[in-house]
Structure formats: C-alpha cells, structure tokens
Design brief:
Blueprint lengths: L1 H10 L17 E5 L5 E5 L7 E4 L2 H18 L2
C-alpha cells in the first residue's frame, strides 16, 4: 500500500491540465486551479512544502522559476 502511494506521487507530475503548457519544464511540480480561479503549484516531495500561486499560467511559471532558483542557491 505504501509503495503504491509513493508511485502515485512520483507520477502525479506527468498529467497536466490543458491550460498548463509548461509541464515539460517543471516535471517536479503539480499544478491545479483553485476554487477562486487562482492557479496553484506545489513542488512534489519537498520539505518544507513549496507552494506558489498566480493569476495566469505565465505568472505561475515565473514564480516556479524563481522558487527553483532560490532552492538551487541554497544547495550551492
């Protein structure tokens, strides 16, 4: 059972909504549209959790890029 749940998390990033054309750039991110219409993205398997939100796909993409750069700087 635990193995199945871990597999689901690893493959969750492969299915992207039609409005998210940047999925191939960010395979470690899961995206969804919230109730109020905001777009959300969270980095899979991150601790602490990384979540960003934006008004449109381009803004969400930019916020993900910023977050990835911040994470890369921490590991240098």
């Amino acid at each position: 059972m635990e193995k199945e749940a871990a597999t689901d998390l690893m493959t969750a990033g492969t299915d992207h909504p039609d409005w998210w054309s940047y999925g191939h750039e960010f395979p470690r991110w899961h995206v969804w549209r919230g109730i109020a219409g905001l777009l959300y993205a969270r980095r899979l398997m991150s601790s602490p959790p990384r979540v960003v939100r934006g008004q449109d796909p381009a803004e969400l993409r930019d916020l993900i890029r910023e977050t990835e750069l911040q994470l890369a700087d921490r590991w240098k």
